[in-house]
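Researcher: Here's a chain I'd like modeled. Treat it as a single chain, no partners, no ligands.
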Amino acid sequence: MKIGMVCYPSYGGSGVVATELGYALGERGHEVHFISSARPFRLHRFHEKLFFHEVTDVNYPVFKFPPYTLLLANKIVEVANFVGLDVIHAHYAIPHSISAYLAKQMMTRPLPLVTTLHGTDITLVGAFEEFNLLTRLALRESDRVTAVSDALARETEDAFGTVDRGIKVIPNFIDPKNYSPKHGLLARCRSHYAPCGEKLLLHISNFREVKRVVDVVKIFALVEKVISSRLLLVGDGPEMVRVVREVLRLGLERKVQFLGKQESVQEILQMADVFILPSEKESFGLVALEAMACGVPVVASRVGGLPEVVQHGRTGYLAEVGDIQGMSEDVLKLLTNDGLHRAFSEQAVSWARASFPVERAVESYEAVYEEVVRGS
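Model: Modeled as a single isolated chain. Structure tokens:
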């Protein structure tokens, strides 16, 4: 099958899922054509079945901003006709599904559309009144809609009503070949970040307000008062200035290290003792799953799809949004009890592998593709 994969190229979970899905589909013999404004940041390994098609801007004085939605629609048609795409898989309703819908109207043959909802396209973008009708159109005109968690599927139907043919939940996934504990690497690399044997706490995100990265720093400050530790912050984004300001305010500049954006986070995850994710909204929490697959217990907010990913009291702890004291206490439970930490680490690996295998997700998406192609 020839699949057109439309996704954001930037740092974030939806792009990671789309790219890793593409690689997995390629391994199963499918041809995957990524269509985006830039090469997706995880699309860095060569594979003979994977291709990238760039949507280029137009420079015309009438347009204050390049009309990306229209340019993307045109590129989808161009690729579909040139390579003979069987299906379009759009990650995010706005703008990708709208562009794919326009492309369908321009095609002279059927081109089925699968839309995968990742969260902010519903909970943030879709919540804007200006995008409400467009989001409804994207859901209505998709031949099949999938969501990455039960929580997101429920939230979508609460906000936009029942979707024709329903919403199929296909959870995100991990590949154990890429995400697994590596204790040898742990011993070699930890000394660079924790030269005196300190505990290592970790947070990875796109540093948007919804991720509450300032809370991460506050949680760490409480933990560090009790047990010698270091904090690694991976990523960048609009909240970076506030995060740096908080680090300086608390006098933690020698204890916190900013690693910036990183394409491959496996090695960093494998070094950590605890992963902190105090998000205000999280439709799934892919990075929490990646952490657990690497044997790192997670302390996170009890929101969205996170309770479907993190087993409270077994693979990590969940607390209410903004409960900085509670989360710091949960982190300390794990850092001050080696036996408890070891048990959580082992249970996290087993849970991630058993409940979120890449094979199951790929087979589910294949079934969706076959369903919409047969129905076209």
